[in-house]
Amino acid sequence: MAIMDAQEIMDMIPNRYPICYIDYVDELVPGEKIIATKNVTINESFFRGHFPGNPVMPGVLLIETLAQAASILILKSPEFVGKTAYLGSISKAKFRKVVRPGDVLKLNVEMKKKHENMGIVDTQVIVNGKKACTAELMFIVADRDKKL
User: Fold this and answer.
1) In this structure, which topology does domain 4-141 adopt according to CATH?
2) Catalytic-role residue among 33, 50, 83, 100
3) Active site located where (predicted)?
């Protein structure tokens, strides 16, 4: 059972169609961990060019999907409510499995460190019980109306 649906997610993060990649949140412990879901369909706009006849979800979009899940986790932390999270860095990224239409992505994100205006998370994309992508992401958190 989802604890956050697509509308609640869009109320929290600024991403919109065609680049809002979280369908729902399965589990959430604010400031600690989140599990969210992305259903990959053949209707995704990026499949028109990546690749015709061999549809593969681009690795950069796997990272973006993880970043969106991480943003939800960070912005649900009491000290960051009402702010915006910006991706600051990506490290230790590994792509282990091709993601195709019909795959269900389980996005696991755990808070590693939290400071005054930033957070570091460990992330995983799981498809059918296997790791498809892992990465460590760092976020900078700012007021919603402040531009970095």
Assistant:
1) Thiol Ester Dehydrase; Chain A (3.10.129)
2) 50
3) 50
